Amino acid sequence: MNNLPKTLRTPLERALSVMRPSGSKEEAQFRAWLATTYPDLERIDEAGNLHFKIGESETIFAAHTDTVHHKGGSNTYTVEGRLVKAGTDCLGADDGAGIAILCHMMSHRIPGVYLFLVAEEVGAAGSQYLVENFDFSPYKRSICFDRAGTSEIITVQSGERLASSEFAEALSAAFQEQDLLYVESENGVFTDNALWGDKVPCNINLSVGYFAQHGPNESLDLTHLEALAAAVIKIDWEALPTCREPGIVEDLVFEAIDKEWQEACVKASRGDFKFFQEQGFRIKDLRLVDEWPSLELASAWEIEQYLDETLTEET
Fold first, then answer.
1. Is pTM, for the whole model, over 0.85?
2. For every residue of 12-31, which 3-state class applies, written as one string?
3. Domain-embedded: residue 119
4. Are residue 78 and residue 159 in the same domain, yes or no?
5. N or C: which end of the chain has fewer CB within 10 A?
């Protein structure tokens, strides 16, 4: 770990060395260290979230300060080559790695609002406070550094799209310029910025190099973390496109249903009517339909409505 840049190593060592369950004195002491170590503290809100601001920016960077440990106190870990491994409990790289990235970016004076959020691991009370009390209107994008692995740009959390694919593709290209492979993923579960998805156009969660979080086998890839730290201070975050309209929720369940009906239209155009027979339509009527190619582009509701109006259903 000694080979890491000091701006990355110092906050990382500090974060990994302490178990910080939500609401513990250890978490409070760690937040106090952040508040007194980095000079751009704007305020500490009533929930305990730390707000830092550097320059003028339409970008929010976020990480959470609590860990899943059941008790506070000193934490142990070992470093084997370029891999940090948990000791007797979980490592706490979730989200110590994300914290270290934010501190590294602040040390390099990257413009943005930096949020260090409380209670993510126990229901995200810190983020909920922001939803109710923080003005998100000046911001076009929020970046959480709170994802396992080394390659994911999470645009969908728990089935809800929170950032456009265009945004993810642009960020992926920016990472490629720094020799890092990051790609869009729709497999996110939850982190803080899921709560303000209806207020900010693009909200993503980035992999920071930890694995098997929340357990004794948790580890952190230092090679990746260092490469990520080098990349994020070179990316022009303000230039990334914001194509999503906040407040418009894309329901992936409906997207999946549409896709299923559209694929059934493709099969029907080839004489395979099984799907529509299962929906109650008679095969002799289905064979009379000439519109299958155009229906392949319609929504499930539109396809069903057309068939309802055109064909005689079984009774």
1. no
2. HHHHHCEECECCCHHHHHHH
3. yes
4. yes
5. C
For residue 301, count other CB atoms closer than 10 A to its CB. 12
251 φψ region: left (φ > 0), alpha (ψ -120 to 50), beta (else): beta
Count Cβ atoms within 10 A of the Cβ of residue 43 and give its class: 0-12 exposed, 13-18 middle, 19 or more buried.
exposed
In a domain, 1, yes or no: no
- CATH classification of the domain holding 51: 3.40.630.10
Q: Which of 177, 180, 205, 179 minimizes the C-alpha distance to 190?
A: 205
Structural domain includes residue 20:
yes
Give CA–CA dist 131/113, Å, rounded: 15
Q: Rounded distance, CA 153 to CA 98, Å?
A: 14
Domain identity same for 215 and 264: no
- Please name the residues in contact with 40: beta carbons below 8 A apart, sequence gap of 6 or more: 52, 53, 54, 106, 114
Closest CA to 51 of 5, 100, 116, 99: 116
pLDDT digits (tens, 9 = 90+) for 125-172: 999 999 999 999 999 999 999 999 999 999 998 888 999 999 999 999
Q: Is 80 in the same domain as 201?
A: yes
What's the CA gap between 228 and 193, in Å, rounded?
20
pLDDT at 315 over 50: no
Q: Are 16 and 92 a contacting pair, CB within 8 Å? A: yes
DSSP H or E segment with residue 152:
strand 152-154
* Residue 113, C-beta contacts closer than 8 angstroms, at least 6 positions apart: 51, 52, 53, 57, 59, 60, 61, 139
Do 166 and 210 share a structural domain? Answer: yes
Q: In the structure encoding, which two tokens stand for residue 73, read together? A: 């106190």
Per the omega criterion (within 30 degrees of 0), is the bond before 251 cis? no
